[in-house]
Amino acid sequence: MRPSLAAASDAFSLEGLDASLEAIARQAGLAIGTLYRHFPTRFDLVQQAYGGKLQAWLDAAEASAAEPDAWQLFGGYLETLCELQADDSGMNDLASMHLPLPDFVAGKLRRIRDLTQAIVDNAHEQGTLRTDVTRQDLAFAIWAHSRIAAATRDVAPEAWRRHLHLMLDAFRAGHTTALPVPAMTQAQVDQAMINLGSANSAGD
Predict the structure, then answer these.
(1) Torsions phi, psi of 157, nearest 5?
(2) Lowest CB count within 10 Å: 36, 62, 139, 187, which one?
(3) What whole-number distance in Å separates Cα of residue 191 and Cα of residue 201?
(4) Average pLDDT across the chain, whole number
(5) SS3 annotation, the chain
């Protein structure tokens, strides 16, 4: 079923996890019934389409939780997660929503949550992360990133890195770092705002 997985990956990446299964089947050259025989639920298809990215996310969390320099790995972990999300609406959905996922995927996400808590705890113990920052605060970074990536993908695709580093400076105890990319131009900001408005109108 490689054609259906390729079609699903493309559709989920562009439209999110609620992309039309009928359209995915047509793109793969299949009848919808054939697709359902191989993937009885939407999230069975999601599990197969996103297995690689979920494993990359888990690998990043495991590596970051094990490294001695807690702050460097805290920032690196968030950057890896944002890179996985940056061009993929479906990955944004997986990272930012509670979904009726298969047990295998849900188990990986629980493991990632636990490792993320360890990353936060390590940074607290080394005194590099603000003491009032919790694991739950990282959700704000994920939610903001998903909107920024969607708005700027065709305008300034690296703009999310600037925002991430601004947030990291806000998270860090008594330290600032140089931002990795320049600010967007006003024209880029204007176009990004148009993109957001169009997305909101499409959902009305």
Answers:
(1) -65, -15
(2) 187
(3) 15
(4) 88
(5) CHHHHHHHHHHHHHHCCCCCHHHHHHHHCCCHHHHHHHCCCHHHHHHHHCHHHHHHHHHHHHHHHHCCCHHHHHHHHHHHHHHHHHCCHHHHHHHHCCCCCCHHHHHHHHHHHHHHHHHHHHHHHCCCECCCCCHHHHHHHHHHHHHHHHHHCCCCCCHHHHHHHHHHHHHECCCCCCCCCCCCCHHHHHHHHHHHHHHHHHCC
Q: Who contacts 190 (Cβ-Cβ below 8 Å, separation ≥6)?
A: none
Q: Is the pTM of the predicted complex or chain greater than 0.70?
A: yes
Query: pLDDT tens digits for 165-195?
Result: 999 999 999 866 787 888 888 899 889 878 8
Residue 191 and residue 184: Cα distance in Å, rounded?
11
CB atoms within 10 A of CB 182: 10
Instruction: Show the tokens assigned to 160.
Output: 């999310």
- pLDDT value at 161 more than 60: yes
